[in-house]
Amino acid sequence: MIKSTSSLTLLASLLVLGLNVMPAQAINARSFIASFGSDANPCTRPQPCRTLQFAHNNTIIGGEINMLDVAGYGTVTITKAISIVNDGVGSAGVLVPASSTGITINAGVNDEIYLRGLIIEGTYSTGTTGIKFNSGSGLTLTNCVIHGTVVAAIDFSPTGVTTNANLRVINSLIAGFGQYGIKFAPTGTGFSTLFLNRVDIQLFDTAGLYMDASGMNSASHVVAHIRDSALATNTTQVSVKTVTGQSPLLVRFVHSSIVHGNTGIVADGAGAVVQLTESTLGPSVTAVVTLNSGAVQSFGDNIINGNLGGDPVLPIFPKS
Amino acid sequence: MRCPIDILVAVAMRKATGGLSMTKFTPSFTVLATVLALGLHAAPAQAITRTFIASFGNDANPCTRPLPCRLLQAAHNATDNHGEIHALDPAGYGAVTITKSISIINDGTGNAISQAPTSPPYTSITINAANTETITIRGFYLEGAYASNATGIKFMSGSKLNISNCVLHGFMNTAIDFTPTIGPNGANIYASNIVIHLSGTGIIFAPTGSGYATLNLDNAKVYDAANEGLKIDSSGMTGGLMGAHVTESVFANAANGILAKTTSGVTTLARLVRSSVVFSNFGVTADGTGAIVHLSESTIGPTLTGWTILNSGAVESFGDNIIDHNLSGNSAPPTVSKK
C-alpha cells in the first residue's frame, strides 16, 4: 500500500491543466472529422475535429481518420503510419493553395500510409502538388481524384530508401493540367514498386507517368505493374529512365491503353524496359522513343496502330 | 520535323499550364466606389473556389459549406473559374448553363439530380465556355423524362468534358451532344463509369474545325438508343484527326450501335476494345472515306446486321472478336495484325 500524498494544490493544478490540454491528450486509435467539427474537440465520434491535420496529430501510429460528411478538410503533413478514409459520405476535399502541397508524407521508413475517397483539387494554381511522398515505406490510394495540380498530381520521390518504397494507386482519376501525373523517382537502395489498377491519367504536359530509377543503386530493383489503366492525351504518356550502373527498371502494361498523346513511350537507358501485353499503343504522333539502349517489348498481342509517325515493330517475347 | 499536331498539343499544354493571364486594371474612384457599393449588396454572388449545394440550401446564401445554395446555377455563378461545386445530399438541383472551367461533384451523398426543363434549352447541362475550358461532372443523375426534345449534356463550346459515375436517363433527343469548334487545346471527352439508358442518340461526338478531337470512353453502358448508341462524325472538320477509344463498354438495343462517319476525309477512327455491341439493328458502321471502326476482343452480335461499310468506310478486326448470331451473316472483316 502506497499512500498518495499529493497536496490539494497539486491536484488543483492537474485539474486546471487537464481542462486546458484535454484535446491534445486525446490520442485516438480512430479519429473523426466533420464539417461541423472543431479542432478544440478530441476528434471522437461524438466530438469530431474539423481538419485533417488536427486529427492526424491526435491519432496514434497505425490509427485511422474517418470522415463524417461532405467538407473541405484542409492540407495535411503525415508523419506516421495512418489511414485516412472517406467511405462514401460524400466529397472529402483537400484544396491545395498556390505554391503548396495537398498531402505531404514525411513518415518513418517502416510506415504505410493509406488514403481512400479523397478529392484533391489544385484549381490550376501555380506551384501546386497533390501528394508529395518524401519518406515512408509505402502509400496506397483507392477511389481518389486528383485534379488541377500544376506541378504534379503525385510526386513519389522518397530519399534515402533502405529497404522498400512502394506506391499503389487503385480505381482513381488523375487529371491535369500540370507537368506530371505520377512522378516516381525514389533514391537509395532496395525494392521500389509501383502498382496501378484502373487508373486514368490525362492531360499532363511533361509526362502522364514518369519513372526514374537512376537514383536507386545497382543492388536495387524498380518495378511497375500497370493493369486496366489508361493514359490519354498526355504530351508524353510514359517516360522511364535509368542510367548504367544504377537500378534496372521494368514497367509492364497489362490490358491498358496509351492513346491520343504526342509521344507514347520513352525508354531511356540500358536496363530501362517497358513491356506491353493485351494493351493499346496509338493513335499517337510518335509511338515509341528509345534512348541510350532503353527497350520497349511486346508479348505479340497488342494493338499498335494509328501512330502518325509509323507503327513500330517491337521485339516480341512469346507467351507461355 | 515536328508534326503539326505535335506542335498543336504542345502549345495547348503550355497555355493550359501557364495559369491565368495577368490583366492589370486601374479602376477610377467612381468605379471603385460602385464596385464596393455593389459588393455590399451582392455578397452571395462573390466568387469562391469551392461551393456547396443542398436540398436545404437557399440561393440567397453564399454557397459555402455552412450556408449552401439550392441550385446548380446559383452555385455555378458563385464559383471561381477552375473551382468546384459539391452536392451535400440527395435533391433535384435544376438545370445549369456552364460558362467556365468548373467541376460539379457528387461523391456518394445520394441521388443528385439535374432534370431537363420542359422549356428551352430543354437541356440539363448546357456548356457555353471558352474554347480552352474543362468541365468535370461526377456522380450526377441526369433525367430527361422521355421528352422528345430533351438533351442531357449539350457541349456547344469549350475544350474538354470529363464525366464519370453518372447516369443519363430518358433523353429522347441526345444524352451527350458534343459539338464545339476545336480550340487551341483540342476537343476531348473523357467518360468513365456512365450509364445512358433510353435516349434518342446516346453520344454524338462531332467537333468542328481543325485539330485533335478525341473521345476516351471506359465502362460506358448505353442501352436503348432509338438512333445511334455512339456516333462520331468529323464531317464538320477541316483537318486534324478524330479518334474514339472505347474500352469495357456495352451498346445494346440501338438502331445503330456505333457509327463512325465523315464526309470531310478526316481520319475518323472508332476503336472498340473488350466491348460489346449487341441486340441492335446495325452493330457497327463506318461511313465515308477516312471512317474506320477497329474491333478487338469485342463482341458483335446478335444483331440484324453486324457490320456495315458505306462510301468507302472501313471496318477492321484484330482477329480476336466474336462476330456471331448476326441475322444477315457473320463474315469476318479484314484483319489487322496484333503486334
What would your notes on this structure say?
The complex is a heterodimer of chains A (320) and B (339). Chain A has helices spanning 8-25, 52-57; strands at 28-33, 59-67, 71-72, 76-78, 82-85, 92-95, 101-106, 112-116, 119-121, 129-135, 138-142, 145-147, 152-156, 164-175, 180-184, 191-202, 207-212, 221-227, 230-232, 236-241, 249-254, 257-259, 261-268, 272-277, 280-281, 284-291, 295-298, 303-304. With 320 residues, chain A is mainly β. In chain A, the strands form two sheets. Chain A has a 19-stranded parallel β-sheet that branches. A nine-stranded parallel β-sheet of chain A has the order 4-7-10-13-15-17-20-23-26. In chain A, helix 2 (52-57) links the parallel strand 1 (28-33) and strand 2 (59-67). The N and C termini of chain A lie far apart (75 Å). Chain B has 339 residues and is mainly β. Helices cover 10% and strands 52% of the residues of chain B. Chain B contains three helices and 23 strands. Chain B has helices at residues 4-17, 29-41, 72-78; strands at 48-53, 79-87, 91-92, 96-98, 102-105, 112-115, 123-128, 134-138, 140-143, 151-157, 160-178, 187-205, 209-233, 237-247, 250-261, 268-273, 276-278, 280-287, 291-296, 299-300, 303-310, 314-317, 322-323. Chain B has a 23-stranded parallel β-sheet that branches. In chain B, helix 3 (72-78) links the parallel strand 1 (48-53) and strand 2. The two termini of chain B are 27 Å apart. The relative contact order of chain B is 0.07.
**Global morphology of chain A:** globular
Task: Give helix and strand order of chain A, one letter per element, not per position.
Answer: HEHEEEEEEEEEEEEEEEEEEEEEEEEEEE
The helical percent of chain B reads 10-25%
From the spread of the alpha carbons, the general shape of chain B counts as elongated
